[in-house]
Amino acid sequence: MHELSIAEVLVIQLQRLADREGARRVTRVVLRIGALSGVEPEALRFAFPVAAEGSCAEGADLILEEAPLKVRCDDCGAETPAEPLAIRCAACGGDRVRITDGSEMILQSAELAFSGGER
Ligand SMILES: [Zn+2]
Fold first, then answer.
1. Separation of 34 CA from ligand 1 center, angstroms?
2. Which of 33, 43, 96, 114 is deepest in the core (most CB within 10 A)?
């Protein structure tokens, strides 16, 4: 399952972050998921607790923010939202566009717990 390996990579990132900061646990994770990232938010929601089991991120709240696709047009310079299946400029209809947002999954923020806290 694709999302499980994504979740595993995410947990590794969180573990590194917690180690670097000297935190015991990760309590909340905010992820921004681009429309073109290929990540299925619902599937990730299920996969994350599985991947996080036994790690510092076990029991963390996972907040998913979906990032719509945005493009900047080389012809008219407009930055507009676009449909993943029909990527073109919404202002002039041109297809000489560059994707400016919505193409990847970004770890937006993570909340760390430093003491034993609730268990
Ligand atoms: Zn345009």
1. 21
2. 33
Report d(CA 62, CA 117) in Å as an integer.
Answer: 19
Whole-prediction pTM: 0.82
In a domain, 119, yes or no: no
Residues 4-31: tens digit of each pLDDT: 999 999 999 999 999 999 999 999 999 9
Give the residue numbers spanning the domain of 107.
2-113
Crossing angle, helix 41-52 and helix 2-21, to 10 degrees?
A: 50
CATH number at residue 24: 3.30.2320.80
Å from CA of 21 to ligand 1 middle: 45
Kindly give the distance from the C-alpha atom of residue 46 to the centroid of ligand 1, in angstroms, as a whole number. Answer: 39
| Residue 87 CA, ligand 1 centroid: distance in Å | 11
99's enclosing H/E stretch is strand 97-101
